[in-house]
């Protein structure tokens, strides 16, 4: 998606350790119009697939998933929580994932009442690096008996192996911007 690539080039910042900061428009301050265009792009890609739920992980995926939902008939957006709280009650699907950004493991929790056998799910997230978060969401869908119809990613770090693994596993993965390489010294970003 050229619009997203241009925003990354113009406003993204490359940090040491393969970190790409896009907080000005994607995962701190949200450009809702851009999110809407991203949702339209995913709706075009996944046209013809039955999708009755969108699943993401808090926090950065929520805004993107909500905007995308409008392009899929306003299907419910469910977000996995990263910590137990008194607001979580009843039976739950729980797994543990490792976060590249946070450099630690944390639980991923979805209440069973929001994900059911026979649901047709689109997974949405802001970044794909090693794919650990998505593997956790896939695991939760498998436990629920839900079908993963596709995966929509805003920014994929194509030089890391997450996207390749998911494609090899047969998932329909649509990454709107695939970063081929980035250089923290020059700030240069190349797209696939």
Automatic annotation (TrEMBL):
InterPro entries: PRTase-like, PRTase_dom, Pur/Pyrimidine_PRTase, Xanthine_PRibTrfase. The keyword Cytoplasm applies. Keywords: Cytoplasm, Glycosyltransferase, Purine salvage, Transferase. Its EC number is 2.4.2.22. Pathway: Purine metabolism; XMP biosynthesis via salvage pathway; XMP from xanthine: step 1/1. CDD domains: PRTases_typeI. Its main location: cytoplasm. One of its GO terms (biological process) is XMP salvage. The keyword Iron does not apply. Residues 44-154 form the Phosphoribosyltransferase domain. One of its GO terms (cellular component) is cytoplasm. It catalyses: XMP + diphosphate = xanthine + 5-phospho-alpha-D-ribose 1-diphosphate. 5-phospho-alpha-D-ribose 1-diphosphate binds at residues 129-133. One of its GO terms (molecular function) is xanthine phosphoribosyltransferase activity. Pfam families: Pribosyltran (PF00156). Xanthine binds at residues 20, 27, 157. It is an enzyme of class 2 (transferase). It is found in: Cytoplasm. PANTHER family: HYPOXANTHINE/GUANINE PHOSPHORIBOSYLTRANSFERASE (PTHR43864), XANTHINE PHOSPHORIBOSYLTRANSFERASE (PTHR43864:SF1). Belongs to the purine/pyrimidine phosphoribosyltransferase family. Xpt subfamily. Homodimer. NCBIfam families: PRK09219.1 (NF006671), XPRTase (TIGR01744). Converts the preformed base xanthine, a product of nucleic acid breakdown, to xanthosine 5'-monophosphate (XMP), so it can be reused for RNA or DNA synthesis. This is Xanthine phosphoribosyltransferase.
């Amino acid at each position: 998606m050229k619009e997203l690539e241009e925003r990354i080039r113009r406003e993204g910042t490359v940090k040491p350790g393969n970190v790409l900061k896009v907080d000005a428009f994607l995962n701190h301050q949200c450009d809702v119009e851009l999110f809407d265009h991203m949702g339209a792009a995913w709706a075009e890609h996944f046209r013809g697939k039955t999708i009755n739920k969108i699943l993401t992980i808090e926090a950065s995926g929520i805004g993107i998933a909500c905007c995308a939902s409008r392009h899929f008939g306003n299907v419910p957006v469910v977000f996995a929580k990263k910590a137990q709280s008194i607001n979580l009650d009843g039976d739950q699907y729980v797994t543990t994932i490792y976060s590249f950004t946070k450099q630690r493991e944390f639980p991923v929790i979805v209440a069973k009442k929001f994900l059911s056998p026979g649901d047709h799910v689109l997974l949405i997230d802001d970044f794909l690096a090693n794919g650990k978060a998505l593997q956790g969401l896939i695991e939760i869908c498998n436990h629920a008996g839900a079908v993963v119809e596709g995966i929509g990613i805003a920014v994929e770090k194509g030089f890391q192996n997450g996207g390749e693994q998911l494609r090899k596993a047969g998932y329909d993965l649509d990454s709107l911007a695939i970063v081929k390489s980035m250089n923290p010294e020059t700030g240069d970003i190349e797209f696939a």
